[in-house]
Amino acid sequence: MERKWWLVIVGCITHAVNTGLSYFGMSAYFPSFEREFGWSRTAISGAFSLARIESGLLGPMEGYVTDRVGPQRMIFIGLFLCVGGFFALSLVDSLPMLYAVIVLGIVLGSSLGYNMPISVLIAKVFRERRSLAFGIFRMGPGISGPMVPLVGWMIGLWGWRSAAVISGCVLLAIGFPLACVIRKIYTQEEAGIVSLESSEANSKDSPHSSIDPQFTLKQALRHRSFWLLSSAMGMRHLVTEGVSVHFVILLVDRGWSTEAASTLLGISALIGAPARIGMGWLGDLLDKRRLVMGLLLALSVSVLLMGYTAQAFVFTTCMIIYSLAYGGLAALQEPIRADYFGTRAFATIQGMSRSVVTAGTFLGPITAGFFYDVTKSYTIAFGVFGLVSLMATLFMFFAKPPSALAAIDVA
């Protein structure tokens, strides 16, 4: 196995551990906060909601700092910030402190140490099989499920404050050695990357040379493909976040038990995990833009039918299609951005794009809740999601990749 593939595998493992503890596992603390402090569920939920839109609020800054400091260093900075956030969580005694610890400690450290820098490293190291590499890396959240009951078990056995300290120690014990491995692998690969970029730079004068686009943030923002691509991904997140949040309660309203509905949601996540690898592999063989368009169409049809059908067999079939589309879109959004705008300012461009995408993340659950409150049914809400996904398909149709020479011409 080539050395650079170990970067992806180790990145996937770190992503899984971090996601299990810092994202999904955080929900296990919710009942403890309510019991000990007597805070309302709305007040506690505010911290988790703000954490979800953190990437949109701080994404541009995170990307800029990552490009300037370097992804190898940012992994360690984010790791220590996240670990410190868990240690601080064990000391929380007020609602403002809870907000600060979760958003500015755990979530910000998670993004700086795992999501952003490892994405940059993979984008730089991989060119020919970039989509497959991202597909494997993005399997991390899909295989992080076992970490969630582990957090709940620790809280039940030792209390939530001790569980927070133990989570920080586990993250440090596992994350620090893996971060060292990632830095070592990338350092060994970096010489080849520099050599390749140098040879490409020397060939720019040739009108027939094939060069990788290298946009700055300013150049990317001037190109309509940036806004079309970001908007399409934002609409995709609007749909998937809305469906995910209301999935269980939708089925409960239709007569399913909570256990059965939750199990089906878990199955959906498991289906989406290998789909990330499969669609990543296809992304290296087929045109990524057309593949994304096909997945968005599948997402549109499946969500529309999920909203209108109450039959278990039809709903489950549509859920499988939805899960495959969801996983594939999650795997392709970063490699297609790297293909469009290169890796020169990948983190900065990605951070700015996340500001647009986060609007969809925030609006999705609210949209579904609004239409349910008005109609007492999710039928119209899921119909709207189907139309939004269809609109995202149209945006992708017009989001054609910019010419590699566009970055040179605008400079």
Topology:
Elements: H1 3-24, H2 30-37, H3 41-52, H4 54-69, H5 71-89, H6 95-125, H7 130-137, H8 147-158, H9 160-202, H10 217-222, H11 224-253, H12 258-285, H13 288-308, H14 312-341, H15 346-375, H16 379-398, H17 406-410
Helix pairs in contact: 1-6, 1-7, 1-9, 3-6, 4-5, 4-6, 4-15, 5-6, 5-9, 6-7, 6-15, 7-12, 7-14, 8-9, 11-12, 11-14, 11-15, 11-16, 12-14, 13-14, 13-16, 15-16
Can you characterise this structure?
The chain is mainly α and 411 residues long. The chain has two domains: 3-194, MFS general substrate transporter like domains (Growth Hormone, Chain: A); 217-410, Growth Hormone, Chain: A (Up-down Bundle), CATH 1.20.1250. The protein is built from 17 helices and no strands. The protein has helices at residues 3-24, 30-37, 41-52, 54-69, 71-89, 95-125, 130-137, 147-158, 160-202, 217-222, 224-253, 258-285, 288-308, 312-341, 346-375, 379-398, 406-410. Helix 5 runs antiparallel to helix 6 (95-125). The two termini are 39 Å apart.
Keywords:
single chain, 411 residues, mainly alpha, Growth Hormone, Chain: A, 0% strand
Order of helices and strands: HHHHHHHHHHHHHHHHH
Tell me, rounded to a whole number, the average pLDDT: 83
Helix content: over 70%
CATH architectural group of the largest domain = Up-down Bundle
CATH superfamily of the largest domain: MFS general substrate transporter like domains
Global outline: globular
CATH class bucket of the largest domain: Mainly Alpha
Which structural class do the helices and strands define? Answer: mainly alpha
Distance between the termini: 39 Å
Q: In CATH terms, what is the fold-level topology of the largest domain?
A: Growth Hormone, Chain: A
Beta-sheet strand percentage?
under 5%
The total count of strands amounts to: 0
- Put simply, the count of helices is 17
Count of the separate structural domains:
2
Low-confidence stretches: 203-210
* Alpha carbon gyration radius: 21 Å
Largest β sheet strand count, sense and barrel closure: none
